């Protein structure tokens, strides 16, 4: 399960605080929320401090969001390692 909280912030920046595992159907939900925020023109930050696990598909999504200038903060060591792997390879 993944809990996504839209933290109050200045109108020009949105922060989604994520808690739980990013896998399965939660990947599409996260992508949809991020796409909507970016379409609104908001700068976006994802706070991953509450995420202990993400699967390969989630890592791919997050890498793509970084390319779209989404900031990732609070990554655990495991999450940071997953994000640095190219296509899930070691």
Fold and architecture overview:
The protein is an alpha/beta fold and 90 residues long. It has a single domain (2-84), classed as 2-Layer Sandwich (Transcription Regulator spoIIAA), CATH 3.30.750. The protein has helices spanning 25-39, 56-67, 77-84; strands at 2-7, 13-20, 43-50, 71-73. Strands 1-2-3-4 form a 4-stranded mixed sheet, with helices on one face. A hairpin with a 5-residue loop joins strand 1 and strand 2. The longest helix has 15 residues, at 25-39. The protein is globular. 17% of the residues are buried. The mean pLDDT is 90.
Helices and strands, with pairings:
Layout: E1 2-7, E2 13-20, H1 25-39, E3 43-50, H2 56-67, E4 71-73, H3 77-84
Parallel strand pairs: 2-3, 3-4
Antiparallel strand pairs: 1-2
Q: Figure out the total of helices.
A: 3
The secondary-structure class comes to alpha/beta
Question: What is the element string, with H for helices and E for strands?
Answer: EEHEHEH
Strand order of the largest sheet: 1-2-3-4
Shape: globular
Helicity range: 25-40%
| CATH evolutionary superfamily | STAS domain
CATH topology: Transcription Regulator spoIIAA
Give the CATH architecture.
Answer: 2-Layer Sandwich
Low-confidence runs: none
Overall radius of gyration: 12 Å
Amino-to-carboxy terminus distance: 27 Å
Strand content: 25-35%
Q: How many β strands by DSSP?
A: 4
Largest sheet: 4 strands, mixed
* CATH class label: Alpha Beta
Mean pLDDT: 90
Write down the domain tally.
Answer: 1
């Amino acid at each position: 399960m993944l809990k996504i909280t839209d933290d109050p912030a200045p109108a020009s920046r949105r922060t989604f605080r994520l808690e739980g595992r990013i896998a399965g159907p939660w990947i599409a939900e996260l992508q949809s929320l991020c796409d909507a925020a970016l379409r609104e023109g908001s700068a976006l930050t994802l706070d991953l401090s509450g995420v202990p696990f993400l699967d390969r598909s989630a890592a791919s999504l997050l890498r793509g969001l970084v390319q779209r200038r989404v900031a990732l903060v609070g990554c655990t060591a495991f999450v940071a390692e997953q994000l640095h792997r190219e296509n899930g390879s070691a």
